[in-house]
Specification:
Elements lengths: L12 H14 L5 H12 L4 H9 L5 H33 L24 H15 L3 E2 L5 E3 H4 L19 E4 L2 E4 L4 H9 L5 E10 L11 E11 L4 H16 L5 E8 L2 E10 L16 E10 L1 H6 L8 E8 H9 L6 H4 L2 H4 L5
Parallel strand pairs: 1-5
Antiparallel strand pairs: 2-4, 3-4, 5-6, 6-10, 7-8, 8-9, 9-10
This protein binds phenylalanine.
Phenylalanine binds next to strand 8, strand 9 and strand 10.
């Protein structure tokens, strides 16, 4: 997927107002019930006109003035029509035998609502914007890879459990092809190009042979990062991830590293942030610990550099891997990972454009 592609060009304010004007004008108000439906749809607290006023509040400068005038005019127009129609339907109801006017086919058809971005795309955009500004270049790779790119180059021992059929989806056994279990496979591809220094982020879908439940799925998305240069240190890694946490959760967030193990990094760590929902006080999202884990990271094992043709005497590097679903679930308090893939419009449209 290319992030530069805008699937839907956002409407301008003029277009939005005009489209709403037409929809309101086309709304048939034949009786008192329809008049009420009209009021609810356009003028109530959550009505479409009212919601535009909310969006309008974010504007500034000269645009604010012109849009404000146009928006007020639209509201007056929509209100007038409702007042007239309510008075009319009341009279009509009083006069016995009155019938609703027939549908008028010449009126403009209602305009379909705008689509919205998927919550995972929004989080991915937020993450990649941050790393992009630090000079990390975006890299992608295939979802079906050989053993070398997913495991071998990354120093997974032959009997590592991830190589088991229980944990990985194998597409072919001889030669081995599998659905990548992490986007570190893209990092291998990038390292083997031999272009140094290297600073890259690899977003993409990954697969693990997990039982589908509220907390885990057999497919999810990651953004993995890799930086290789002379004299890269763990302090560099900490600084970047600290700034990343601030970018996502605000200036008051704190981070902590817990020792961990990954075959391809040494030392390895997992990073927690202070729970941004309860500010570290304890809540059910952080299971009352005040901390939530958001990523795995570490210094690239020199053997991995050598495997990919990089001189580990000269170069060092750090790597990190972040699950997009997990971050999105934490940020929006989404209780079930399966919601991301069901495409229920009531769910996906809640997250803005
Ligand atoms: N590849 C690891 C995973 O998918 C995450 C990770 C990336 C950990 C880079 C450390 C360094 O779980």
């Amino acid at each position: 997927m290319n992030p530069e592609q805008e699937p839907v060009a956002p409407l301008s304010w003029d277009e939005t107002l005009e489209s709403l004007r037409r929809v309101a004008a086309a709304f048939e108000i034949g009786d008192a019930a329809a008049a009420e439906a009209y009021r609810l749809r356009f003028l109530s607290k959550k009505g479409e006109v009212t919601r535009l006023f909310e969006a309008f509040r974010a504007l500034s400068g000269p645009e604010k003035k012109s849009v404000g005038q146009a928006l007020n005019a639209l509201r007056t127009e929509v209100e007038e029509r409702w007042k007239e129609a309510s008075a009319g339907t009341a009279q009509a109801a009083a006069a016995s035998g009155a019938t609703a006017p027939a549908a008028a086919p010449q009126l403009p058809a209602p305009v379909w609502g705008r689509g919205s971005r998927h919550p995972l795309s929004l989080t991915r955009r937020l993450m990649l914007d941050f790393f992009g500004e630090l000079g990390f270049r975006w890299s992608e790779g295939p979802e079906i890879v050989d053993d070398w790119h997913n495991f071998g180059a990354l120093h997974f021992e032959a009997d590592h459990p991830a190589r088991d059929m229980q944990d990985t989806f194998f597409v072919n056994l001889d030669p081995v092809y599998l659905l990548r279990t992490h986007t570190s496979s893209v990092q291998v591809k990038e390292m083997m190009k031999g272009l140094l220094p290297l600073r890259t982020v690899s977003p993409g879908r990954v697969y693990r042979n997990e039982t589908v439940s509220a907390r885990s799925h057999m497919q999810f998305h990651q953004v993995e990062g890799l930086y290789i240069d002379r004299d890269v240190s763990f302090a560099d890694l900490k600084k970047v991830l600290y700034d990343f946490a601030i970018h996502l959760f605000g200036p008051d967030v704190q981070i902590r590293f817990r020792p961990s193990y990954f075959p391809f990094t040494e030392p390895s760590a997992e990073m927690d942030v202070t729970c941004f929902l309860c500010s570290g006080q304890g809540c059910n999202v952080c299971k009352h610990s005040g901390w939530v884990e958001i990523l795995g990271c570490g210094m690239v094992d020199p053997q991995v550099l050598e495997n990919c043709g990089i001189d580990s005497e000269v170069y060092s590097g750090y790597a990190f891997g972040i699950g997009i679903e997990r971050l999105t679930m934490l940020r929006h308090r989404i209780p079930d990972i399966r919601l991301f893939y069901e495409n229920d419009v009531r769910f996906v449209k809640q997250f803005g454009v």
